[in-house]
Amino acid sequence: MENLIRIPKPVYILSSASVVGQHEKNGPLGEYFDIVGDKDDTFGCDTWEKSESEMQRLALSRALNYACIKDTDLEAILAGDLLNQCAGSSYGLVSFETPFLGLFGACSTAAEALLLSSLLCSSHMKRCAAVSSSHNASAERQFRYPLEYGGQRAPTAQWTVTGSAAFITTSCKDDFSKTAHKVEPVPIITEALIGKSIDAGITDANNMGAAMAPAAADTLLRYFRESGLQPSDFDIIMTGDLGFEGSSILCDLTSTEGLDISAVHCDGGMIIYNRETQDKHAGGSGCGCSAVVLAAQALRGIRTGQIANMLFIGTGALMNPTAIQQGASIPGIAHLIRITADIV
Amino acid sequence: MENLIRIPKPVYILSSASVVGQHEKNGPLGEYFDIVGDKDDTFGCDTWEKSESEMQRLALSRALNYACIKDTDLEAILAGDLLNQCAGSSYGLVSFETPFLGLFGACSTAAEALLLSSLLCSSHMKRCAAVSSSHNASAERQFRYPLEYGGQRAPTAQWTVTGSAAFITTSCKDDFSKTAHKVEPVPIITEALIGKSIDAGITDANNMGAAMAPAAADTLLRYFRESGLQPSDFDIIMTGDLGFEGSSILCDLTSTEGLDISAVHCDGGMIIYNRETQDKHAGGSGCGCSAVVLAAQALRGIRTGQIANMLFIGTGALMNPTAIQQGASIPGIAHLIRITADIV
Hints:
2 copies of one chain form a homodimer. Helix content of chain A is 32%, strand content 26%. By secondary structure, chain A is an alpha/beta fold. Chain A folds into 2 domains: 5-174, Peroxisomal Thiolase, Chain A, domain 1, CATH 3.40.47; 190-343, Stage V sporulation protein AD (Peroxisomal Thiolase, Chain A, domain 1), CATH 3.40.47.40. In chain A, the strands form 2 sheets. In chain A, strands 1, 2, 3, 4, 5, 7, 8, 9, 10, 11, 13 and 14 form a 12-stranded mixed beta sheet that branches. In chain A, α1 (22-25) links the parallel β1 (5-20) and β2 (35-36). The longest helix of chain A is centred in the N-terminal third of the chain and has 20 residues, at 48-67.
């Protein structure tokens, strides 16, 4: 059965907003993020979990602000994060007067939320929000050790990004009339492909890139088989977040199947930090990583005319520490959306 | 903005299957569940987490079997559970060759998954599966204490159900031609209302019913305001799972607003165990509770002609133990679908 969904009715990304911490501000994309936290990444809160929730609140508030709409103008918020029971989203977004759908896609959550938002906006709804987050300090103590422990990191380990992004999707072209995007190209989601959960037998929780790359390869191979397009039809194919290790594996896996994406591939985890100066090993990861890179790098590229046609593939590792302790391997997943530039 | 979604194209529940443990088998609905585990609820696995995953695998396999279709005939599986990072679903469903969307709605997950499945089947897809689960032993040790500890339970505490259910939704009426449901009435999802996250300030993690009841009241009040219908238009209004405590609060909250649902209200958590003999305090709960009660009680009622028109409201408490330890209150959520009987 063919799984590629060609979205029949235009769904626009009306606005996006990104919130990051200090390490991300000091990376190559630093100047493009919308909100940067205080110097210790607490966002004014007394626990790291509350800091993460506050980042989601800030991201959605700013995205609504950019879109010149209120929370009650949204028909649904789709959101998720890495905290147990997705508490970052539940607590971060409870103050918004909007129907709420919780998602769990691990680091693929931004893509999953945008994918579902675009399907809902092209059918039953007008406007949705897609929100996700991760915070380095809340993730480290939940998945590994509290920061104070000073645990050693493996060379293949990725650094959980302190970041949150929110995206407003709409099927109403008129919504742009209130915003600043009157003349710029705007992003439009035209296709979607839901990922399959793929378990390639990786049991090393310090090498998530290797666990997720087979899922990304499966999604990309299905996409190009079903769409009939070529990698050269795209300005960029952005995965997020395989990091250096997983990206290298992905390009190997696809080229073995005759699909060479290397000329247009980039990965959120590879470009958010400076590899020479920031000591982040295999790159960035976390629900916030691909989300803030999409907002600050790719969508900016569409709005400034540098990108006209792209694929965004959010990758996630569907594990938890208990499963790893019990010797389970790590299933990966990768959800794809195609984003093109459109003049409103 | 009105939030009630009237589903424009018929979406049928093609099949459903329920899997439960011994306590559930010994309850009033015992004979109606499709699969009952071994005497110690391990489902042949060596950890409780693996047992829960196995229940999801069994539930979806059986539902596919009843529907006379294969996993590759589905365009998406929407699934979630209570384990950290929804690992019950990720590991339980990885063997199916189907695009996978992870959800987190706590105990509202069955309703959230059915709601989204019905929206997708009425627009971009033909067939989806909605799956959820909980296991008493994996939930107890994750949220509270390992069973071996023998912790005392508060009178307002609910008992996490060992159960999983899978539902196949379809927009293809012809799909019934292969199944046993040729002449019976079949369930059709006609309306959906996404819940808002409501924080009423409850901080007692032993009283989830009180935390979720305000969200259920909000959803029901919005539904009856927007639909123009009355509770008497329905054969049953089934919440799941508020238990005895939460159900009583719900009826109080809605009647204060002039909406008396008491004549037709029932709750999955109240009917899954025998209150006199099974010592389950405030009733059942967990992602599996409302799911297996919907499959074994309500949908059976539709197929046998006893129910023609019902509301199913899945309720969830969007918290985690860390948030409770940090003094946070517990937001609740309640997603609604309307299910009516249709002759194929």
